Amino acid sequence: MIERDDLDMLAAEFVLGGTLPVEDRQRVQRLRTTHPELDAQILQWESRLSALNDEIEPVDPPAPPGFSPGLSVPLISWSRPRRSTTRWSGSGNKCPGGA
């Protein structure tokens, strides 16, 4: 049996999101369906913390270092490079320099 204070702390950490490791979050997700008291605690925490969203103005995150908003060419190409269609001509050697 989970103590009431531990249950409340677990619910709070679950609602905050980043404070529980992934495995623990998944465990709480499963426990929620079979433990109505845990589910009720989670709903209470969601209700308490949702009011904070109404008081905070959205802010754009700062640009990463080296970011240029006027840059129109991507710095990284995610497509595969094209193979050259140029063939060697000449003496029949496949490598330059005759090797």
Structure description:
The protein has 99 residues and is mainly α. It has a domain at 8-52. It has helices at 4-16, 22-34, 36-55. α1 (4-16) crosses α3 (36-55). The longest helix has 20 residues, at 36-55. The model has no long low-confidence stretch (mean pLDDT 77).
Mean pLDDT: 77
Which geometry do the CA atoms define? Answer: elongated
Supply the helix-strand structural class. Answer: mainly alpha
Count of β-strands: 0
Largest sheet descriptor? none
Could you spell the SSE succession in H and E letters? HHH
Distance between the termini: 77 Å
Low confidence ranges: none
The proportion of strand residues reads under 5%
Helix content: 40-55%
Please give the radius of gyration in angstroms.
29 Å
* Secondary structure tally, helices: 3
Write the layout of secondary structure elements.
Layout: H1 4-16, H2 22-34, H3 36-55
Helix pairs in contact: 1-3, 2-3
Features:
mainly alpha, 99 residues, elongated, 46% helix
Briefly say what this structure is.
With 99 residues, the protein is an all-alpha fold. It contains three helices and no strands. The longest helix is centred in the middle third of the chain and has 20 residues, at 36-55.
